[in-house]
Specification:
Layout: H1 5-8, H2 10-29, H3 40-65, H4 73-101, H5 110-122, H6 140-164, H7 169-187, E1 200-201, H8 214-241, H9 243-253, H10 255-260, H11 265-291, E2 293-294, H12 301-314, H13 319-337, E3 344-345, E4 350-351, H14 353-371, H15 378-384, H16 405-409
Antiparallel strand pairs: 1-2, 3-4
Helix pairs in contact: 2-8, 3-8, 3-11, 3-12, 3-13, 4-5, 4-6, 4-11, 6-11, 8-9, 8-11, 9-11, 12-13, 13-14
């Protein structure tokens, strides 16, 4: 009888245990349900960090396991935020408008309320009507479905076109980046239907929960983010651990040989790409209500590059490494860019980390790539005493005539 997934891969159990302890500890120390040692803003930062960790895990499935360096993952992340943000804006604005119009002598009709809500939302871009893409915005379940369908459909169409054309390597990375840039430029337009550069705001105000303070809402979102990260980690670990995962890694290592063996390389890539896009979109749908606002700048290609850097620093090809990298770099970034890191006075020049953080991040990426390709997660091997095998000229295969290490190096 085959052992359960968590027993075959103890790292999964360790990761879930650390996540649970972290969530309980933050809850106990929070302002909403605990001692108040951790502020509400910090709880929101931690909740958003968990969402970024989920996006990094999905990125690792695409890059670390399938070998697809996608520089467009944050497009799916932002689309998930936009989809849930549409419902949040409509429901919140509808409540405000209904309360205002209730004072009129004649009760307003549903059409009048809808027109007033549309004017309130889109007046900033000179419109007073709901665009067609907002057709399900009045339904929470409809928009939750859109969180999955819209990014998933985009990934399906893009992936099918790219993979069937056998675009690989740096060319595929450029294509994903171009897709993200094109989408961002489109959303910057006022007639895109998503309020252009203004984006969607006020997302932290959850309809129907006006009586609940932000100190408690932040904890609820932290719990939701932790559950999503745990379930997403389990799902991706399950996908990566079985036969599907073995074929996916084989595609990463030698795509031509896998195709020669009769496997549908394009099909495997497409499944991985779409699954990662959907998981990333769910992470975005949880992230932006905690951030409170989303605009097209969130789709900037640099955001997806940051995501790749986090995965590389954490350790590509190890799901927990991707999560560690996202948490570590994200929290470090908040510390440096938030003004909490003290400036360094060199006498002739003062280093202000707000200005130098990106330089430090880029340098860290280069150093990790050159000297520590396993990233932070490589410390696990160091603690366990694992070392690469030293064959000292031994055969690299089972046959007597197999290549030897010295020959392979030469």
């Amino acid at each position: 009888m085959r052992k359960p997934l968590v027993l075959r891969h103890p790292s999964i159990l360790v990761f879930l245990g650390v996540l649970a302890v972290f969530t309980v500890a933050v809850t106990i120390l929070s302002t909403g349900y605990g001692t108040g040692a951790i502020s509400t803003s910090m709880v929101k930062t931690l909740g958003k960090t968990l969402c970024l960790a989920l996006a990094a895990v999905a990125m690792d499935l695409v890059w670390g396991y399938a070998g697809i360096l996608s520089l467009g993952q944050m497009a799916f992340f932002a689309l998930g935020g936009y989809m849930i943000g549409m419902w949040l804006m409509v429901a919140r604005t509808e409540g405000i408008v209904t309360g205002t119009l209730a004072n009129l002598p004649i009760p307003p009709t549903d059409t009048e309320i809808s027109a007033a809500v549309a004017t309130q939302i889109f007046g900033v871009v000179g419109s007073d009507q709901f665009p067609l893409i907002w057709v399900f915005s009045g339904s929470l379940w409809g928009q939750l479905l859109m969180v999955v369908l819209v990014p998933g459909l985009l990934a399906l169409v893009f992936g099918w076109l790219a993979f069937r054309s056998r675009v690989n390597g740096v060319y595929l990375s450029i294509l994903t980046q171009a897709m993200t840039l094109a989408l961002a430029l489109y959303l910057f337009q006022n007639d895109s239907g998503l309020r252009g550069n203004n984006g969607l705001s006020g997302l932290q105000n959850i309809p129907g929960l006006d009586a609940v303070g932000q100190e408690k809402l932040s904890i609820w979102f932290l719990w939701a983010s932790a559950v999503a990260l745990g379930l997403g980690y389990l799902l991706i670990a399950w996908v990566a651990s079985g036969k599907f995962g073995s074929v996916t890694r084989a595609i990463r290592d030698d795509e031509a040989r896998v195709r020669f063996l009769g496997y549908s390389v394009e099909g495997y890539k497409l499944v991985v790409f779409v699954l990662a896009a959907v998981v990333t979109a769910i992470a975005g749908a949880l992230y932006y209500p905690q951030a409170g606002i989303i605009n097209p700048a969130e789709l900037a290609p640099i955001a997806s590059i940051y995501l790749a850097v986090w995965v590389a620093i954490g350790g590509r090809g190890r799901l927990y490494g991707a999560a560690i990298g996202a948490v570590f770099v994200s929290m470090l970034s908040s510390w440096f860019t938030g003004g909490r890191a003290p400036d360094v006075n060199l006498g002739f020049y003062t280093i202000k980390w707000v200005d130098w953080w990106q330089v430090l991040l880029g340098l860290s990426f280069v150093l990790v790539t050159l000297f520590a390709p396993k990233g932070i997660s490589g410390l696990v091997d160091w603690f366990e005493g694992l070392r690469p095998p030293r064959r000292r000229g031994a055969a690299l295969g089972p046959d007597m005539g197999s290549l030897r290490e010295k020959e392979a190096v030469e």
